[in-house]
Specification:
Blueprint: E1 9-11, E2 14-17, H1 21-33, E3 39-43, E4 53-57, H2 63-69, E5 75-77, E6 80-84, E7 87-91, E8 95-99, H3 100-111, E9 115-117, E10 121-124, E11 128-131, E12 136-138, E13 141-144, E14 154-168, E15 178-181, E16 190-199, E17 202-211, H4 218-231, E18 236-253, H5 255-260, E19 267-268, H6 284-295, H7 302-319, H8 321-333, H9 340-346, H10 351-358, H11 364-371, H12 379-383, H13 389-398
Parallel strand pairs: 1-12, 2-3, 2-13, 3-9, 6-15, 13-19
Antiparallel strand pairs: 4-8, 5-8, 6-7, 10-11, 11-12, 14-17, 14-18, 15-16, 16-17
Length: 399
């Protein structure tokens, strides 16, 4: 079906503003359950998903979600490694990755002509979207998933990274990902290298920093990645693609005030709904659960979706207060060059606890175990991190 001309209105059942992961999972789940729905995705770039890799552990999602998520999984490994100055370990939790190329391929086949690319939404409302070229679309359900929005009611740290996919001159020898190699120089906060073996001679290397600010020097970090590859004995024939990311790490917040801020009127979703793991910044598991939630709605309306997503967001935020406490200890109690010690100690804990932590299901006993023993940060500074309100007030004063 050809897109409408200026002055005409295209009618759909669901409009997805933004062609990222959150929108893609909603489309996949809705079309899987109800193939007759007309779901239109609006993406300002020429391809869906941009240049990203979204990862999660197999234990992060339910078996039901795992089943319908399968078409998007581009890579899977039976375990992963972590490396720290005083501790290295192999864990057997399966690890999975969705590539932007796979997301684009699956969405293009699923939506066909209803994937509108290279279009800019100039006006987003609860039941309609207007494009910058004057075209108008309408639907009873409009979802705004254009990424996180800044708010004075959230205090954030940042996980920022540059990733380069390389084709190597010889096999790299890795059999599983190294999701944290913190044996490197600790620059700009907690720094580690993240490596995914994509083929025998192809790797994705990401240089990641948990930093106080979002600024990212791409040229300098590219040099750091080249130095790391050289130290592993890898010679790159070419860098086939790059991805840049700046993910929020939640330190404190007033989630009720966040949801009270004026918005477009559409149903905010994904990162825009503050749905991400507070410590890792990973958004895939929450986005999958959100897609399940939307697909189960009795009526696919903006009002119903907004209320359901808001309730999910508020519940998750309150349940994850412990994670934000740990983040404050990492960012506020530990000196930047010593932050790796917090993660080094964490990775000495039992694997089932680590799995529950990443899945956002840390139990009371898990939380006690994480905090028990000799702390990796000064006690006095750790105690100062207990309340959230002072950090929020400090952020508000600095604006």
């Amino acid at each position: 079906m050809a897109p409408a001309q200026p002055g005409q209105t295209t009618q759909a059942d669901v409009l997805l503003v933004g062609g990222g992961l959150a929108s893609g999972l909603v489309a996949l789940r809705l079309k899987g359950a109800r193939p007759d729905l007309r779901v239109i995705m609006l993406e300002r770039d020429a391809r869906i998903g941009g240049e990203h890799t979204w990862s999660c552990f197999a234990t992060d999602v339910s078996p039901a979600i795992d089943q319908w998520l399968r078409p998007l999984i581009a890579h899977e490994w039976a375990g992963y490694d972590v490396r720290f100055p005083s501790h290295s370990r192999t864990l057997t939790t399966a690890y999975r990755a969705i590539s932007s190329a796979q997301l684009h391929s699956v969405m293009s086949e699923l939506l066909g002509a209803d994937a509108w690319l290279s279009v800019e939404a100039s006006e987003v409302k609860a039941e309609a979207v207007r494009l910058s070229d004057g075209r108008r679309l309408a639907a009873p359900l409009v979802i705004d998933a254009r990424g996180p929005r800044r708010s004075q009611h959230l205090a954030l740290g940042w996980q920022k990274f540059l990733g380069q996919e390389m084709r190597l001159a010889a096999p790299h020898g890795l059999t599983r990902p190294v999701i944290m190699d913190a044996t490197v120089a600790q620059l700009d906060g907690y720094r580690f290298l993240y490596t995914l073996p994509l083929a025998a001679d192809r790797v994705l290397i990401e240089d990641t920093r948990y930093a106080d600010g979002p600024a990212l020097d791409v040229t300098r970090i590219a040099g750091d990645i080249a130095a790391y590859a050289d130290a592993q004995g890898w010679r790159a024939l070419e860098v086939t693609r790059e991805e840049v990311g700046v993910l929020p790490i939640a330190l404190a917040g007033d989630i009720d005030a966040y949801w009270s801020e004026p918005t477009t009127g559409a149903a905010d979703a994904g990162m825009r709904a503050a749905l991400f793991h507070p410590t890792t910044g990973y958004s895939l598991p929450d986005a999958a659960r959100q897609a399940e939630l939307i697909a189960a709605l009795p009526a696919l309306t903006t009002t119903a979706a907004r209320e359901a997503i808001m309730a999910m967001s508020k519940r998750a935020w309150r349940e994850r207060a412990f994670y934000r406490l740990l983040n404050r200890m990492l960012f506020r109690a530990a000196a930047p060059g010593e932050r790796y010690r917090v993660l080094e100690r964490f990775y000495r804990l039992p694997q089932p606890l680590i799995e529950r932590f990443y899945a956002g299901r840390a139990s009371g006993a898990d939380k006690l175990r994480i905090l028990t023993g000799k702390p990796p940060v000064p006690i006095r500074r750790a105690l100062g991190c207990l309340p959230e309100a002072p950090l929020l007030a400090e952020r508000a004063e600095s604006r």
